[in-house]
C-alpha cells in the first residue's frame, strides 16, 4: 500500500459495475446514471465537496467546524436520496432539528457581520469567494432535490429546507470570512 497499512476490504477502487451506464441505489434494481435521483445525489455530493474546499480555505476555526458538520449532514442526506422509496425511511437523518441547527448557526454569525441591503459581487477574499461558490453549488443541489420532491419521489421535505438554509448559511459565512480578513464592506453589484 502507498500510505500505511490501510486496507478497508476493497482490493481496488473501481468495480466496473457501472460501465453500462447503470448503477444501483440503496434498494432493488439498477437505474440509468442519468436518472433524476442520481442527478440529485451527484449534486449533493458536489455540494459536500464545495464545502470541503471552503472548509480548507476558511480563516476561522468556527467556520471550519460548522462546514464539517454540514458536510457530515450532506453525507447522511445522500444516503436517503439514494435510497429507493421503500427504503428511504431507514436512512432518514435530516429532520427539523438539523434545520434548526443551521438556522442557529446563521443567526449567531449574522450577529457579528453587516448584512448588505444590495446584491454583492463575490471575490473580496479567497475564503469568501469559495463560500460563495459553495452557496451556488448547494443551490443546484436544492434544485435537483426539489425535482424529486415535486415528482413525489422524495418524501422528506426537511431535506429541501436544509439545503435552503445551508445556502443562506454559506452567504453569512462568506461575509464573516470577509470581515475576518479585514473586508467589512463587500463589493456591491452596482
State the main characteristics.
mainly alpha, two-stranded antiparallel sheet, 190 residues, 5 helices, single chain, Hypothetical Protein Ta1238, Chain: A, elongated
Put the structure in a nutshell.
The chain starts with 21 loop residues before the first strand and ends in a 10-residue tail after the last helix. It has a single domain, classed as Hypothetical Protein Ta1238, Chain: A. 56% of the residues lie in helices and 3% in strands.
Would you write up a description of this structure?
The protein is 56% helix and 3% strand. The chain is mainly alpha-helical and 190 residues long. The protein has a single domain (35-180), classed as Cobalamin adenosyltransferase-like (Hypothetical Protein Ta1238, Chain: A, Up-down Bundle), CATH 1.20.1200. Strands 1-2 form a two-stranded antiparallel ribbon. The model has no long low-confidence stretch (mean pLDDT 90).
List the helices and strands and how they pair.
Blueprint: E1 22-24, E2 30-32, H1 36-57, H2 61-82, H3 96-110, H4 126-150, H5 158-180
Antiparallel strand pairs: 1-2
Helix pairs in contact: 1-2, 1-4, 3-5, 4-5
Amino acid at each position: 500500500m502507498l500510505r500505511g497499512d490501510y486496507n478497508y476490504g476493497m482490493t481496488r477502487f473501481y468495480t466496473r459495475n457501472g460501465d453500462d451506464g447503470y448503477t444501483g441505489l440503496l434498494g432493488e434494481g439498477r437505474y440509468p446514471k442519468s436518472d433524476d435521483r442520481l442527478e440529485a445525489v451527484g449534486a449533493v455530493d458536489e455540494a459536500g465537496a464545495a464545502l470541503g474546499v471552503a472548509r480548507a480555505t476558511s480563516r476561522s476555526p468556527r467556520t471550519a467546524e460548522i462546514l464539517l458538520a454540514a458536510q457530515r449532514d450532506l453525507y447522511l442526506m445522500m444516503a436517503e436520496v439514494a435510497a429507493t422509496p421503500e427504503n428511504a425511511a431507514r436512512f432518514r437523518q435530516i429532520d427539523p432539528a438539523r434545520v434548526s441547527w443551521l438556522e442557529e448557526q446563521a443567526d449567531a454569525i449574522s450577529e457579528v457581520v453587516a448584512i448588505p441591503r444590495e446584491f454583492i459581487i463575490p471575490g473580496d477574499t479567497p475564503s469568501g469567494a469559495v463560500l460563495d461558490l459553495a452557496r451556488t453549488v448547494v443551490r443546484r443541489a436544492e434544485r435537483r432535490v426539489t425535482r424529486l420532491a415535486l415528482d413525489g419521489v422524495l418524501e422528506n421535505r426537511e431535506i429541501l429546507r436544509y439545503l435552503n438554509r445551508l445556502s443562506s448559511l454559506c452567504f453569512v459565512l462568506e461575509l464573516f470570512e470577509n470581515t475576518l480578513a479585514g473586508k467589512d464592506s463587500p463589493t456591491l453589484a452596482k
